[in-house]
Every structure is written in structure tokens, then in C-alpha cells.
Amino acid sequence: MTPIDRSRLPTALLDFERSPGRYRVVLREPRALFEHIGSVMQIAAGRPVEGLPAEPANAPALRRAARFFVRTVMLRPGSDPLTLLGLHPGFEPAQLREHYRLMIRLTHPDFDAAGEGWPADAATRVNLANDRLSSPEKRAQHALAWHTPAGDVPAAIAGAPRRPQPLLPQPARPRPTFAHDETRAGWRSLRARLALAGMGAVFMAGAFLLVDPMDNEGALVVRRAPPVQAPVLPPSPEPGTPSPEDAAPLQDAARVPEAPRP
């Protein structure tokens, strides 16, 4: 890093904070910040940076802009361990330890400034990134997971092509219509109409069979069935009373005249 490059950091930081949507961070833009990301982390932590004034007039604004870059770019969802810790390929172990300490300090709740929305899992992600880059074997495993050589992980991420968009479905071509198709469709329509007419005729015939003819006033009259009456039975005689058949001999005997007395 040259002093000229470092002198561009304050302007690049303030410009990114004002208009972050102008830059494609997936392609490592703005390059002035990605190329000197270690200096950005030092500004965010309030430490002096070589080649920059120790106490610039806009120090609070620069610190706020640097923390905004760390929070929205380095800790964005899906960032790889190298970007999350601000490292480049071929970093030294001492640089890994220094950047890890800076990120732990920045994500600590006691260091959080009012109004800044740091991710809730920031410290966990920092520890996980440090673990994946702590040894050459783990770095190789991580690079294999990205399907790229170990030294080309950030370069592959920076220039990774976008996922191809799915092809749009081709519009359906109209099926050619032939004369026999139209004839077949006409016969189907005629048969459907005949079937409906037959069903209507059957329904009307059934209705006429169930209903009497109209009376003189033109209203339909429905016959009522005569009520069923129970047969009338003679009253049963009371107990001890002789029936008519038994009483007839008795009445005849009463009519016989008595014999004259001498």
C-alpha cells in the first residue's frame, strides 16, 4: 500500500456511506476499500492508520463510515471467511490474529455505538471464520468446499458469474384446425343438445303423470285419498249379562201359561 492509496480512503469511505447502492460489493467494489480493508478496520476501531492524519477534523464521521462498511459488507449474509476477517490470499498467521481481535472488538456489545444495528450472530460468525482459517488443512478443506484452489478463493468469489437465469418457456403454438375436426365438433355439439332435449321431455312427462288435469279455473288440483275409517263393532255385553242367543229360550219359557189349579 502506498501513501497515495491510503489518502483515498477517507473519500471512499464517506462516499460509500452516502451511496452504498452504487457499488457491487460481490465484485469487491469499491476497490479502494477492499484493497486496504485492514486500514478500514483500524479506522473503525478508532486506531491510527499509517499515512493518514492521527486526528483528522472529520474523525467521528470517518469512524462511523468505516464501521458501516464493516457491518454491511464484511458481515453481510453469505460472506466468505476471508472477506469476513478482511484477509487476502497468502495472509500471515499474525495478520489473522490481528484481524480476528479487531473484529471481536468491533462486534462486542460494549463497543456498539447507539443507533448501529450489528448482526446478532456477528461474534459467532467471526469465531467460525477464524476456526476455518486457523490451519492450512482447514483452509484447504474450506477451499475444497467452494470447489476452487485454496489460493484462489477470494478471486473466484470476486469474479464469480451470476447464476444463469432459467429459460423462459416457449409460447404454445396453435394446433392447426382441419375440416374433419370441425365436423366432429359439430356432431358432438348436436348430440349434446339432443341428449338435453330428451332429458327435458322425460321430466315433463313424469310431471304430467303425477298431477291431475286442470279444473274449471285453470288451477292444478291434487286428489286427496279418502280417510280410512275403522270398522264399528257392537258393544260387548257386561259380565253376568246373558247374550241374545242365551236369552231367547228364557223368554219363550216365560210365555208358557201356568196349569190351572184344581
From TrEMBL:
Membrane spanning residue stretches: 194-211
SUPFAM superfamilies according to UniProt: Chaperone J-domain
Listed InterPro entries: J_dom_sf
Entry keywords, A to Z: Membrane, Transmembrane, Transmembrane helix
Record's compositionally biased regions (Pro residues): 228-242
Region entry Disordered, spans: 228-262
Designated name of the protein: Molecular chaperone DnaJ
